[in-house]
Write a structure and sequence with these properties.
Blueprint: E1 4-11, H1 16-29, E2 33-40, E3 48-56, E4 69-74, H2 77-82, E5 87-96, H3 103-106, H4 116-122, E6 126-130, H5 132-139, H6 145-154, H7 161-171, H8 177-188
Parallel strand pairs: 1-4, 4-5, 5-6
Antiparallel strand pairs: 1-3, 2-3
Helix pairs in contact: 1-7, 5-6, 5-8, 6-8
Length: 189
């Protein structure tokens, strides 16, 4: 199998590292060679965070270059646009349609760009947009947006739901298992 590349992008505190851990666990259990690499900006201050997940028969590098990502999973709209140049032609963006103002917008130095999803769509990008926050809240925890998005991502793999759930259970604390399973199911639906 050729190497496949998935980027998980968001801002600090959204759970992108847990999402990449879950995905890495799943892929290893499916028998793939997997490399996961984390790049932190000012993650503690709400800055941009990106994780690379690469898998295949043999993966030599954890880094994804521009134009190589098969899928970008974005926890926020502006982050999807920020990392779009990494998407390969024909790739897919799974995006939480929530907008989180970056510091320049909060301080009034800049304005949040308008109609980003429409602009990406006009470029011919395959976009799967989902308002993940209400689904996470329905599951019982607003911070489960990351797991809602992993549920959405699962729709594009041939792995069983049970395999995803097994990895989810292995990666989250026992006390959070039911909420996360529900968030995953809502995201997949």
């Amino acid at each position: 199998m050729m190497t496949k590349n998935i980027m998980i992008v968001g801002v600090g505190g959204q759970g992108s590292l847990l999402a990449s851990k879950l995905l890495g666990h799943l892929l290893v259990n499916q028998g793939y060679d997997v490399k996961v690499s984390e790049v932190h900006g000012m993650s503690q201050r709400g800055g941009s965070v990106v994780t690379y997940v690469r898998f295949g028969d043999k993966v030599y590098s954890p880094v994804i270059d521009k134009g190589e990502a098969d899928v970008i999973v974005s926890f926020e709209v502006l982050e999807a646009a920020r990392w779009l140049e990494y998407l390969k032609p024909g790739g897919r963006v799974i995006v939480n349609t929530q907008q989180i103002d970056p510091m320049p917008v909060i301080t009034g130095v800049a304005e949040y760009p308008e109609q980003l999803i429409e602009k990406m769509d006009a470029l011919g990008v395959k976009i799967d947009g989902v308002d993940a926050l209400p689904l996470a809240e329905e599951a019982g925890f607003s911070k489960a947006v990351n797991i809602v998005l992993m549920g959405r991502l699962s729709r594009y793999f041939d792995f069983s739901v049970e395999a995803w759930e097994e990895s989810l259970i292995a990666c989250v604390p026992a006390k959070a298992k039911e909420i996360n399973l529900k968030a995953f199911t809502l995201g997949r639906a």
